[in-house]
Amino acid sequence: MRSCINLWIVVALVVPVLLSLRRPRGETKTQTASSSFSVKLANSLHFNKRIRDGSNLEYDFYRNTCPQAEGIVRSALTRIYFDHRDVAPALLRLFFHDCFIQGCDASLLLDENDGNNNRSVEKQAVPNQTLRGFDKIDLIKEEVEQACPGVVSCADIVSLAARDSVLLAGGPFYPVLTGRRDNHQSFFKEATDQIPRPDDNVTRTLHLFNLRGFNARETVSLLGGHNIGKIGCDFIQQRLYNFHNTRQPDPTIPLDFLRQMRLNCPNNSNTNIDEFVTSKPTSSDVHSKPGMSYMQALSSSVSSGSTFDTHYFQSLLRGRGLLFADQQLMAEDRTAKLVSAYASDDGSTFRMDFARVMLKMSNLDVLTGPQGQVRLNCSKPVTS
């Protein structure tokens, strides 16, 4: 029985790597070579001098110290999901914003920076002020702590919860290695400057992902995660009413789609793209907050299956991207070809690629072994 489990683990981890070596749909030889160069560039510009590439992570890391850990995360999240379906996109976004800044180290969850309440934390950075799900991670952490005090890191809980959220939302399963440690400090400035913005052009989007070792295909695949959940009106208001400070809408939006978007997001002249939100949303306004989903973005004449399918990419092909940064994927030939490739089948290509790149993202720049700590409370570092 043990050998069968080990064989499954090997297959689950090796197959995505083998698949990534083939030339994928929508890419040319030149683009593949360019991607290789981009990875080398990313390595040379890496943000951390320490080796934090996930190579020290293990499958079922807590098998001896807390064998029920992953089961607790899964069952707790499942209970939460059936009461709050919007928790899936919230935790996926939380995971992305944490991993994108200095790696998957739960630094985003801190309420104080290295034990100092007077230093700004990532939560306070403008791109993170609309994040939700912190309370859900705390609930899961409490259950894990009751079973195994001081053993399972918040960083591992965030990565596992994101994977299980994707699965609950109809997305693909992918293996998550564990053994991450939590950071004792938070990175406010980096979060402010380096989180991709909804008004970014395709060049800046690709550049930011490139610096972290993601090529164009992986970037387009990750952005496909926008196909679940709702894009808040705060993120598209400028595009609808004051694009580039012209007091006019983005001229590239089809007129029928512009009318649809404006019906969902009426004009709010006080909205500024640099000030998406001035206060953290409460649990009572999560469901009432206006916005649109990519299911709504598709015209009624276009069929769409489950929520985690190709409708995001189909929307971009029809010029119906909700975020300017999303629609910008059609502005460059190499990304436009990838969008077309993902939209052209039943979703299996996208799901396979998304699973592979989420595994890669979850291993990004992690702390392991003697690095970092295991927090007892995800919002507070452990102090000596």
From TrEMBL:
Transition state stabilizer (site feature) positions: 93
Cofactor: binding comment: Binds 2 calcium ions per subunit.
Any GO molecular function: heme binding
Cofactor: Ca(2+); heme b
Active site as annotated: 97
The keyword Signal appears for this protein: yes
Domain of life: Eukaryota
Stated family: Belongs to the peroxidase family. Classical plant (class III) peroxidase subfamily.
Name of the protein this chain belongs to: Peroxidase
Native source species: Phaseolus vulgaris (Kidney bean)
